[in-house]
Structure formats: structure tokens, C-alpha cells
Write a structure and sequence with these properties.
about 190 residues, alpha/beta, six-stranded parallel β-sheet, globular
């Protein structure tokens, strides 16, 4: 068995099409839908009627890496629940709009708050309520199991499904486009 070099940093294994990276290069805020993107889209109810959700830890780490790359993660969702609030708080997501189906005005409000514009925004969504934001954003993404109309307008469709790493794939793409991916990866290898 060979010993890995402790001094030489490996070349990242992840890569994306250069034209895609150019399109995503100026992104400074990434908007996320929840159901179907950060979760698998299923709604689970306990016997008492409480909603529970399943979140992917890979996606959570991706959201943290976005912040380290200088990209603000923001969440706009049509639902609101205690589990969702708990998860977003644990991830340190500060810009959240709950219970809104009209997502474009909510996204505009966040952009204004951050002093950014649509040319600096990306969005990942899976269904019709996400389409207005996707059309306005500089970069649009959809999970592989998104509705066909959403995938048709996306700049990139992930290989992973919502709730199973699609958000992480979106985050990785944005971090690579920011030019910070190798640096952040090497920080974890040191």
C-alpha cells in the first residue's frame, strides 16, 4: 500500500463545462427552493399531524461552502415548519422567506437588502413557482427530478435528485465558478 504525499495537494476531481462556469462566474447570491430541492419533495406527517422533513447533509455542507466562497445562500419557500426553521438556523442561513408562492418579489427584496441585482443571482428550483426567479436570475439550475418545464429553462440540470445532493451539486458548481473551490478543498485536506 502506498502512502499519500502529505505535501502535494491533489488536483480537484470535480469539473464543469467552462462555458457553464463563465455563465455562473459573477454569482454573489444563490436562491434555494426547499421542497424538491433541499428535501426530496415528499411531505411526511406524524400521527399528530406534524410535518417532518428529510435533509441531505451533503447539501448542508454545500451551503456552508457557498458562504466561505463569498456567495450568500438565501431560501424562498412556499411552506413553513418548525423542522425547516431548525435546519436553516443550524446552517446559519440568514436570508429566508417562508410561506410565499410569489417568489420573484421575495427574491428582489433580498437582492435589494444585499445591494445586488439579478445579474449576480442564481436560483435552483424544481417546480412552476420557481420559474419566475429562474428566468430573472443570471444562472438557473434544476434538480434531475424537477418538472419538465423547469428543466427546460434551466442553464444546468443536476445529476442528483432534490434532497439527494442536487443542492450540493449546484453549490459546488457556483464555488468552482467563483474560483475558490481548490482553495477550500485544500483547506479540508491540510
Amino acid at each position: 500500500m502506498t502512502q499519500r504525499s502529505q505535501t502535494a495537494m491533489p488536483t480537484p476531481a470535480l469539473n464543469f463545462d467552462p462555458a457553464l462556469l463563465l455563465r455562473a462566474q459573477g454569482v454573489r447570491v444563490a436562491f434555494f427552493d426547499v421542497d424538491g430541492v433541499l428535501t426530496d419533495g415528499g411531505l411526511y406527517f406524524t400521527e399528530s399531524g406534524e410535518t417532518i422533513k428529510r435533509f441531505c447533509t451533503l447539501d448542508g455542507h454545500g451551503l456552508k461552502m457557498l458562504r466561505k466562497a463569498g456567495i450568500t445562500p438565501a431560501v424562498i419557500t412556499g411552506r413553513d415548519s418548525a423542522p425547516l426553521r431548525t435546519r436553516l438556523k443550524a446552517l446559519g442561513i440568514e436570508h429566508v422567506r417562508y410561506g410565499t408562492e410569489d417568489k420573484a418579489p421575495a427574491a428582489q427584496e433580498i437582492l435589494t437588502q444585499l445591494g445586488l441585482d439579478w445579474s449576480q443571482a442564481a436560483h435552483i428550483g424544481d417546480d412552476w413557482p420557481d420559474m419566475a426567479v429562474m428566468r430573472l436570475a443570471a444562472f438557473a439550475c434544476a434538480p434531475s427530478n424537477a418538472h419538465i418545464e423547469v428543466k427546460a429553462i434551466a442553464d444546468y440540470v443536476t445529476q442528483r435528485e432534490g434532497g439527494h445532493g442536487a443542492a450540493r451539486e449546484f453549490c459546488d458548481l457556483l464555488v468552482v465558478a467563483s474560483g475558490r473551490y481548490a482553495e477550500l478543498l485544500h483547506g479540508h485536506l491540510a
